[in-house]
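Q: Convert this sequence to structure tokens.
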Amino acid sequence: MTGYYSRHPGAAREAAQFTASHFYPTLDELANDSDALLLTVPDGAIAPVYQQLARCGISGKQICHCSGAMTAGEAFPDIGQAGAYGYSIHPLFPFSSKLESYRELPGAFFCLEGAGPHLPDWQARLEALGARVQPIPPGAKARYHAACAISSNLVCALVQESLELLGDCGFSRDAALQALAPLMRGNLEHILHEGPVQALTGPVERGDAGTVEKHLACLSTPEERALYRAVSRKLVGMAGRKHPETNYSQLENLLKEG
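A:
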């Protein structure tokens, strides 16, 4: 590792000190000393930083970004003309602490994308750290990131909806979270060990249209009902796979848009 450059010098100095590497006051100096550069910036800043970097001269260098949604080709459209190679290295991992999260890298998952010859080298480096790695083609990048968002960010919306419903029942926010915690943890453990179809329980899995109808009736806005219906229609399909002998047509009719 050569070191760090940032438009916030204090952050680059802190990172360099923590990793026993160098602080670079300019991007040009970092580029001149490095064979590979990782752009760990927000998605909207990747292209401007790359354009600045390209003016430094990047022939023969590997330029990597860490966006989950953007392909290497989208981020670095003219990189081949510059004689360099572009890659996307996305950690499927929540970095909660810049000083501690590295300890959790063993077992973390990385998605690799790019067309250059160094992709196997990046895979080997990450696997040497104990990470798991999945190369994907550029055309799958948006679908991959949608999958990540659904299993992470969208879950936050579902939990928030649960908290609001429990709030209507008299729960405080803290009490609601404590009440839901064993349910969510237990369900997640079953999902991870058995898969979502086998882990499925509840009124949809039982074909209990009466309870589902009560749920819909207590949801006060069209948006809440649409959310419940959309997710429950997915559950009906899963329940049908778990119990192919069961007729879920009554639930399917109940959960149609309306």
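The two ends are 58 Å apart (CA to CA).
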